[in-house]
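Schema walk-through. Below, the input block comes first and the output block second. Nothing else is stored per chain. Lengths vary across the set, and this one has 436 residues.
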Amino acid sequence: MNIAIVGTGYVGLVSGACFSEVGIDVTCVDIDNDKINRLKKGEIPIYEPGLDDLVTRNVEAGRLHFTTDLASCLDNVEVVFCAVGTPPDEDGSADLKYVVEVARTFGRNINSYAILVTKSTVPVGTSKIIKKVIQEELDKRGVSVPFEVASNPEFLKEGAAIKDFMSPDRVVIGIESEKARKVMERLYRPFLLNNFRVIFMDIPSAEMTKYAANSMLATRISFMNDIANLCELVGADVNMVRKGIGTDARIGNKFLYAGCGYGGSCFPKDVKALMNTGRQHGYTMKVIEAVEEVNKAQKSIVYKKIKRALEDLNNKKIAIWGLSFKPETDDMREAPAIEVIDKLIADGANVVVYDPVAMEECRRRIGDKVTYAKDMYEAIIDADALALLTEWKQFRVPSWKIMARAMNRKLVIDGRNIYDPSELREEGFEYHCIGK
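--- output ---
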């Protein structure tokens, strides 16, 4: 079976590599000529554990190909996945210009039955727009070529994307015909053989499922951060509260960790888009709007704790461990680190940063506004405070004795609640976390 995937970001490249791993012939398409040339040389433009080996193996096996020209491969594929970006507009709505352009290219060049499957996260109703655009292009050509659209939202976690694709909780597919269902069943048969759940539904429901899932997870995070902030005021321990409610089978223990806010490519964008969809239909998503407000405030909580402890930040040296929005990725989109760094610099602080993977991404985003340390311990030399913002494994058991000698003031602000307060206090550190 031959397929094409348009877009070589986290979703497109991981999907292409994983589909090729189970024997499907995949052509990955991107308009970025430099990125395609790098991929052809075996250079992976994103950090995702295991992805480089997966891509190399399937390129060498002749099952994974890269091109900048979607039109050149449309005669040979049955399914085209659209995995391009849908960044938020100023009003929070998803920008569909790249999705529409894929639909136009599809309509201009198909000559036999094919399905355009949306893997990008798009608002409910996007499939109608895509169908209209494709039909317009066919009408311009004066041809009648059968086609269908479908929705197959992704549920990949950055840092564990390959495992999520190869062993999914579920695969959600929105279709409009039995013919499309059979094609998609054939495509996902390798996963069906392992008894993974493939859930077929109508397209609007599939489109909504993606937004609902991410917004529910974001809601749990903001809810726990709200509870954590109250815990600090009343003298409770949010970790004890988390354990207490997480053992309730109706609630479960996932996504109940308090911290300095969520970021990344999905939750912030999808929450805003769902709020905007509600507004477009005259409905206010009150819970989701509260989720957004709590998260926006939570991203500043580490900065506020540093400010409260040091008072005057001018010329103070602040070390930051962790820049990516979560471990096992270099993605800094909407990361709390950006907010904290901006506020510290605005107050005159000297900021030194270290992250195992995201240093180059930080340079690309904020340039020389901060100092880049070679390792975690260099970052804290003569520091007046250390802020931990990403819970990378290598940060979990540092040498407090080395740190006590290296730091100017033994002050630790733990934005992810990974340290034992009693251990730090025994070593003479002033320790602040979230929700205690």
